[in-house]
Amino acid sequence: MVDTETTRQLRVAAATRLERVRYAIRDVAVVAEQLVREGKQILPLNVGDPLKFDFRTPPHLVEAVARAMRDGYDGYAPSAGLEDALEAIRSEAERKGIRNIQSVFVTQGVSEAVDLCLTALVNPGENVLTPCPEYPLYSAVLAKLGAEPNPYHLDESLGWEPDLDDMAARINTRTRAIVVIHPNNPTGALCSRSTLEAIIELARRHHLVLLADEIYDKLILDGQPHVSLASLASDVPVVTFNGLSKAYLVPGWRVGWGIVSGPADALAPYVEGIHKLLRARLSGNHPAQYAIRPALEGPQDHLTEVVRKLRARRDLTMQWCESTPGLSCVRPTGAFYAFPRLHISGSDEEFVRRLLIEKQVLVVHGSGFGQKPGTRHFRMVFLPDEATLTRAFQSIAEFLRASGC
Fold this sequence. Notes:
Layout: H1 4-10, H2 24-27, H3 29-37, E1 43-44, H4 59-70, H5 83-95, E2 101-108, H6 109-119, E3 127-132, H7 137-145, E4 148-155, E5 161-162, H8 164-170, E6 175-181, H9 193-206, E7 209-213, E8 238-243, E9 255-261, H10 264-280, H11 292-297, H12 301-323, E10 327-328, E11 337-338, E12 341-342, H13 348-359, E13 361-362, E14 364-365, E15 378-381, H14 386-402
Parallel strand pairs: 1-13, 3-4, 3-6, 6-7, 7-8
Antiparallel strand pairs: 2-9, 4-5, 8-9, 10-12, 11-15, 14-15
């Protein structure tokens, strides 16, 4: 037998850098998993995975990957990605007006692209401006790197547009970059062109890199055009993140990419740093890269149906929010998330936990994405069909009434 003292000595401690790493979207699911083990059926409104609901991958993408696998393309790919895929991504970027492109590379989803690009950019003690609320991946990666998220507020009263004065006030000598999530996760908001131009001017003035997360750029719900941040400034360093997961309904394939644009001389060391990391991890998913050109240049019919469904489900969500005491919500104009505000006295984290336990509806607490002090929100996806959403809304409304709202 191993004595207690030996057992203590054998314990392997996790690195202290992980103490600040949080990922609310998955963390909240731990309680749900326990309820499932107890035989409860959970209604999941927490994760942005369209394939959990009535969305299916376009068949021509499935066939492209199946053909690649039948043809034996199962070894390592080039570290930056297949040349054919890179050409298709570059052409798509140019169609959006992005110029002065210095590098294109394929990654294991946008998550890896974010990790690589932050790792190649920031040193311990430096900071990156991140939106508040934000997608928590950015803060998690920065915490791992010993760098700091430097949150700038999105203004709920202005449709979640970035607060430009707040953004400007937070820039300091240790700031390296500004993250812009457009359309935003978790709020579903779009930035106006004038706001994007103002952010570019801040980056230009302070010599900052712009990190533009545009994974939802094809899921615009009210017909207005999506303006790519990099298309407005060929003289400012911009990394644009995108991929197949959301618009092309293949989140599990993990196909993302980065596009580095801006002045060649200024970007050369940074681009080499990114490619050094790409080489170190060998390659992205090889067979799935054969879907990139068919996705970007092939039939886009599925997008019409996807946007139609999302618009109807967004409208149903807004009708519910507007008619339910204790809630208010800025109308999402992109992606498939709503970020309702809770007019309650307790914490939003406790609200989410009790809602899950008592009603088996799983959403994510707003504090997991960051929010202004004194406000309480939760994020939900409106991906399910209308009948499922209606059932969820009834359960949440009943819970609010029982809570005295």
